[in-house]
Write a structure and sequence with these properties.
The chain has 2 domains: 1-40 and 176-221, no CATH class; 52-173, Rossmann fold (3-Layer(aba) Sandwich). It has helices at residues 42-47, 54-68, 89-97, 109-118, 152-162, 179-184, 202-212; strands at residues 11-16, 24-28, 34-37, 78-83, 100-105, 123-124, 137-143, 163-172, 198-199. It contains 7 helices and 9 strands, in the order E-E-E-H-H-E-H-E-H-E-E-H-E-H-E-H. By secondary structure, it is an alpha/beta fold. The N and C termini lie far apart (36 Å). The strands form 2 sheets. A 5-stranded parallel β-sheet has the order 6-5-4-7-8. The chain has a 4-stranded antiparallel β-sheet with strand order 1-2-3-9, with no helix packed on it. The protein is globular. 31% of the residues lie in helices and 22% in strands. The chain binds zinc ion (ZN). The site of zinc ion has 8 residues, from loops. Zinc ion is lined by residues 3, 5-6, 8, 28, 30-31, 33.
Length: 221
């Protein structure tokens, strides 16, 4: 097999997964990208995940905010899209703390309904792939979503289509180089449900960006 990102031929077994017919995660020796092989069915990945845990979503929203607020536009009103908003607490936090028009997408209807009725958010209860908007977004954010996405190339292209010219794309995702992974291996919290397909590190995303001819901008840390 070849690495889907850099096409490197040398890969190592990373650890065993809980997918029924696709037992191993592999890691590319060249770029570090981690992926399940053979790939699980799309229908399998779409059945996974529980987006309705409101308490967890509320607790995590503060953690997300502390990690990303430095990357948000600091002046003027901006349009913010959260993909995979769960029960909406992070979107609500952005709406409360920033001068932002916030739109959320959550394909779990129950979670979307919670966000709409309890938090008074604008929520589209549909898959990201079918979402359409006449206006672009200045920030597109997803917290712990991309590692579960079946077609990450399609997902990134969709983000690219919806992003404004100077827009910012922000993902929070587990880091396969984290000390917890090194210490705990397959007991690592980055893979709690066995429904994770990909681990991205900065290195692979830079390869994506370059291959697609997208501009790279200096990061504020
Ligand atoms: Zn690679």
């Amino acid at each position: 097999m070849r690495c889907p990102i850099c096409e490197g031929r040398e890969v190592s077994r990373f650890y065993r997964t809980q997918f029924s017919a696709t037992p191993y995660f592999y890691r590319c020796n060249a770029c570090g990208y981690c992926f399940v092989w053979p790939r699980p069915e799309r229908s399998y990945s779409e059945q996974q995940g529980d987006a309705t845990d409101a308490h967890k979503n509320e607790v995590l929203s503060w953690d997300y905010y502390s990690k990303i607020h430095n990357f948000l536009p600091q002046k003027g009103r901006f349009r913010f899209l959260e993909v995979g908003a769960s029960t909406g607490y992070f979107s609500k936090l952005i709406e409360d703390r920033c001068d932002a028009e916030v739109i959320s997408i959550e394909m779990d209807v129950k979670a979307a309904c919670y966000a709409e009725t309890r938090l008074d958010l604008v929520v589209y209860a549909e898959p990201f792939e079918s979402f359409r908007s006449d206006q672009s977004f200045d920030v597109i954010f997803s917290g712990h979503v991309i590692e579960h996405v079946f077609d990450r190339f399609e997902y990134l292209r969709k983000c690219s289509d919806l992003l404004s010219e100077k827009g910012v794309l922000i993902f929070l995702t587990p880091n396969a180089d984290a000390w917890k992974q090194i210490m705990l291996h397959d007991e690592w919290g980055g893979v709690p449900n066995g429904d994770t397909h990909n681990f991205f590190q900065e290195n692979q995303l830079l390869i994506f960006w370059r291959n697609w001819g997208w501009p790279l901008v200096p990061m504020r840390r």
